[in-house]
Amino acid sequence: MPDSVIRVLLIEDNPLHARMLRGFLESLTTPAFPVSWEGSLTSGLNRAAEEDFDVVLLDLVLPDSRGLDTFLRWKANAPQIPVVVLTGLDDMALATRAVENGAQDYLLKNQITAALLSRSLRYAVERVWARSEEWDSPMFRVAHQQFLKAAQFMGLDDNIRQRLLFPQRTQVLSLPFRRDGYDQVETVFGYRVQHVLTMGPTKGGVRYHPSVSLGEVAALAMWMTWKCALMGLPYGGAKGGVRIDPRGLSRQELQRLTRRYTSEIIHIIGPDKDIPAPDLGTNAQVMAWMMDTYSEQVGHTVPEVVTGKPVVLGGSVGRKEATGQGVIFMVEEAAKHLGMDLSKSTAVIQGFGNVGSHAAHFLEELDTTIIGISDVSGGLYNDKGFDIEELRQYTAENGSLEGYSECDRISNSELLELSCDILVPAAIENQITAGNADRIQCKILAEGANGPTTTEADEILNERDIFVVPDILANAGGVTVSYFEWVQGTQNYMWTLDEINSRLRKIMTRAFHEVLHRADRDDLDLRTASLIQGIERVTKAKLKRGLFP
Ligand code: GLU
């Protein structure tokens, strides 16, 4: 479920029932259920052939079709769209047979409420997704393509290649949590994936987002492996997540969900097993709840079980800013290499979350003019440059950049195509694709997000000589300072911000030059060179450890 809109096709011939159902659907907001109505099977099928729908609400008794045949005809013609059957009390046996034949659910017309309808439709979409697309995510395909390309260039041993393609350990959960008011229990899908267990504990964030799936989490875990190996950190990669939009949850709901998720994965996490951290949709507070839940279970406080926690609970100074700071350290190295003066350069940042806002702040400190910025509310352009502190204050007061006036409003695609020196995609994956790569107009593209560029786009950018600092290098500042946080926790050290930042700069700069050297020597793009650096280290470790038994 890529976003929080579920498009419904309602096929119902009784206008009174149709009016009631449409009324319910139109009253719902998270997610929203835009609804189209047809009164016969034929017109419903025609509509589904013309438009995209996520789910169909299907009455089995229609003017042009009756009984199970209605469902079977639907399934034969539009098998890809999940079905929730509408039935009367007297037709329950029929509805059950439809479920046996592949319908996701059925609803008794005289018992439907808006809440029941919302849940049934959401779960129908979720279940189909869970059954068919868990591994098959576009992100996992990108991660595989990148890995296979690097493996080819480096002549990777095929035994190792096969072992690295899929994560070593995955846990898939269906977990419940109570809604406020305690009358509803939501059941959502959750994951924790550990890609490589060879290097030490595994490490990686927890993502709360509606697009989280096993494949997505596996891709992100794989990238964590390469990222940690490239930085020389003693970790394999992991990632976790819950398929949910956290913006639709109250603070209490978020806390209950987090505690339940933590207790479900408690046996596979721990300071020497697997150490979660924040990612998209989670933050220091979520880490504090995870740490507290874990500590309550083991009977003593264990701050090192997570990183990215609040400083007062043993978090590290500089961790919050670390990913954005690291991106800008890499931009500084890239600019030096290309002979660019950052104080005379312009930048565009996609995303104003933790990574984007800090990257913007650190670039501003280097006197770079930030001419474009975006967040969930859209893109902003000002050729004179933005005052980042003012934007931060505006976001803190208003929740987003919506309504900020000292700029022109532009779309996300216009933002990415602005002419600038530095472009930092710091939002979500799959932003620079074959569709827009030839219109990207920057000199340095520094990937703050994970997986923002597709493989095809990569080739176009390389041909156009755009200097791409790939995600596993550019955004490695987060996990590197997470490592510092873990070391401080296990050894009871307290490092200052200067110590953190100078160590971070040293580690990332070394990695940058190793990658650059390899890229020059072997005539590779920086992404492939970075991947090879990471894969090589993991391969050496696997071969040295040998195979049990
Ligand atoms: N979620 C961050 C990343 O993708 C940080 C992970 C961590 O600190 O362990 O790199």
Give an overview of the whole structure:
It is a single chain. The chain has 549 residues and is an alpha/beta fold. It folds into 3 domains: 8-135, Response regulator (Rossmann fold, 3-Layer(aba) Sandwich), CATH 3.40.50.2300; 169-313, Rossmann fold (3-Layer(aba) Sandwich), CATH 3.40.50; 322-477, Rossmann fold. 46% of the residues lie in helices and 17% in strands. The strands form 3 sheets. It has a 7-stranded mixed β-sheet, with helices on both faces. α6 crosses α19 and α9 crosses α10 (284-298). The two termini are 41 Å apart. The structure holds glutamic acid. Residues 203-205, 277, 279, 307-308, 450, 475, 478-479, 482 line the site of glutamic acid (GLU).
Describe how the helices and strands are arranged:
Elements: E1 8-11, H1 15-27, E2 35-38, H2 41-50, E3 55-59, H3 68-77, E4 83-87, H4 92-100, E5 105-108, H5 114-132, H6 138-154, H7 158-165, E6 169-178, E7 185-194, E8 202-209, H8 214-231, E9 236-243, H9 251-264, E10 274-278, H10 284-298, H11 319-338, E11 346-350, H12 354-365, E12 369-375, E13 378-381, H13 388-398, E14 408-410, H14 412-416, E15 422-425, E16 444-446, H15 455-463, E17 467-469, H16 471-474, H17 477-491, H18 497-522, H19 526-545
Parallel strand pairs: 1-2, 1-3, 3-4, 4-5, 8-9, 8-10, 11-12, 11-15, 15-16, 16-17
Antiparallel strand pairs: 6-7, 7-9, 12-13, 13-14
Bound molecules: glutamic acid.
